[in-house]
Design brief:
By secondary structure, the protein is of the alpha/beta class. The chain folds into three domains: about 150 residues, 4-hydroxy-3-methylbut-2-enyl diphosphate reductase, catalytic domain (Cobalt-precorrin-4 Transmethylase, domain 1); about 90 residues, Rossmann fold (3-Layer(aba) Sandwich), CATH 3.40.50.11270; about 140 residues, 4-hydroxy-3-methylbut-2-enyl diphosphate reductase, catalytic domain (Cobalt-precorrin-4 Transmethylase, domain 1, 3-Layer(aba) Sandwich), CATH 3.40.1010.20. About 40% of the residues lie in helices and about 20% in strands. The chain is built from 15 helices and 17 strands. The protein has a five-stranded parallel sheet. Strand 6, helix 5 and strand 7 form a beta-alpha-beta unit. Helix 1 crosses helix 3, helix 11 packs across helix 12 and helix 13 runs parallel beside helix 14. The longest helix has 19 residues. The chain starts with 8 loop residues before the first strand and ends in a 9-residue tail after the last helix. About 45% of the residues are buried.
């Protein structure tokens, strides 16, 4: 994303890291998590054993974004500070920023209203990034911009921009309404106004693209199902000849790779191996932190685990992906915050894995027999919230945490 005037555009913080570290630690660190790390990621109290995945919680990009927001408040104590959408998908973190006087601007039908922003205001861009349209609108206002866009997201932007420059349509594995995917899709037309994209949510939608490529369905039929997730002026007959696959960085890695392979195979079956080499590109643009957390969950599930608790926002894509991995093998409870576990009633409020925006309550989720629970958390979940969840799990069984130094 071009910075414009360097005096009003910042991507590297304000040199106030040391000044905000104590505040960050107080808000987000967790002594219980540190204790579990030291004990081989394990805590046993009574007949409950909790096993923590070896990679979990805050990633570098999230830590950086949150730290920059704290630095911004410290740097501009008397200015109005806005945040374009949620900085990350964690309700506790966003609530904390509101407590600090940072106003979160929420979109209406996918568009932001910047009419209240003045030149002397400060605007924070979230870890997901923003669309080119929104970025340019803020530059026209002339306000100070603090850009916390994750480096992994920037890598995807470079990839789809290169696709457009070379005449390839970007097929993006992601959620068309997600902030990151919307920002990525906008990059397709950064250099070339004729660039195009098509967003597919999962393998089922990718198969629709494959069916079209192989002549099993018409362009009109494809657009009737996926037109809402395509660039304006998208014509399958013209824009699905040369294809480059990319993905939202927080999707399920195995599915992203499978989608790329399926589209490449469809081109090869239809037009031959030479066409695949010439007219198809694919790269794994899942961020390393997302991959590490998914790999750690797979490793944990090799053990005897009775159930998994996955902690993170219900709108957090990387958390949803973790829950999907777990639910394929064991009962899984994706909770948004520790408060979802009610020790008094013994119930849990959770998001049903694999069901869009569907939540449920379970009063019998924790067996009365000796139990081994697995715990992991999305990349936007603070360690403090993981520790609180473990404490509530134990309290449900009438157990107390061991004393912490």
């Amino acid at each position: 994303m071009p910075g414009g005037d360097p005096s009003t555009y910042f991507r590297k913080g304000f040199g106030l890291k040391a000044e905000v570290q104590d505040e960050l630690a107080a808000d987000y660190s967790g002594r219980l998590v540190d204790r579990m790390r030291e004990a081989d990621y394990t805590l046993t109290v009574g007949d409950v054993t909790v096993r923590l995945a070896r990679e979990f919680g805050f990633c570098y990009g999230v830590e950086r974004a949150v730290e920059y927001a704290y630095q911004t408040r410290r740097k501009f104590p008397d200015r109005r500070i806005y945040l374009v959408g949620e900085i990350i998908h964690n309700p506790h973190v966003n609530a904390r920023l509101r407590d600090m006087g940072i106003e979160i601007l929420l979109p209406d039908a996918g568009r932001f209203d910047f009419s209240t922003v003045r030149p002397d205001d400060v605007v924070i861009l979230p870890a997901f990034g923003v669309t080119i349209h929104d970025f340019n609108a803020l530059r026209e206002v002339g306000c100070i911009l603090v850009d916390t866009t994750c480096g992994s997201v920037l890598n995807v932007w470079k990839r789809v921009e290169s696709y457009a420059r070379d005449g390839f349509t970007a097929v993006i594995h992601g959620k068309y309404y997600h902030e990151e995917t919307r920002a990525t899709a906008s990059q397709v037309r950064k250099q070339d106004e004729h660039g195009h994209y098509l967003i597919v949510r999962d393998m089922n939608e990718a198969r629709l693209v494959c069916d079209y490529i192989e002549g099993g369905t018409t362009g009109d039929q494809l657009m009737a199902k996926l037109g809402h997730a395509a660039s304006s002026g998208f014509v399958p007959e013209r824009h699905l000849h040369r294809v480059g696959v990319a993905n939202q960085t927080t999707m399920l890695a195995s599915e992203s790779l499978a989608i790329g392979a399926a589209i490449g195979d469809a081109i090869q079956r239809t037009r031959g191996a030479a066409a695949r080499d010439r007219d198809f590109r694919t790269f794994d643009t899942i961020c390393s932190a997302t991959q590490e957390r998914q790999d750690a969950v797979k490793e944990l599930l090799l053990e005897p685990i009775d159930a998994m608790v996955v902690i993170g926002g219900f709108n957090s894509s990387n958390t949803i992906s973790l829950a999907a991995l777990c639910a394929a093998q064991v009962p899984t409870y994706h909770i948004e915050s520790p408060e979802a576990i009610d020790p008094d009633s013994g119930s849990v409020h959770y998001r049903l894995p694999g069901v869009h925006h569907k939540e449920a309550d379970d009063a019998d989720w924790l067996p009365s027999r000796p139990v081994r629970l697995g715990i992991t958390a999305g990349a936007s979940t603070p360690n403090s919230k993981i520790g609180e969840a473990v404490a509530r799990i134990l309290a449900t069984r009438g157990l107390e945490l061991p004393e912490l130094d």
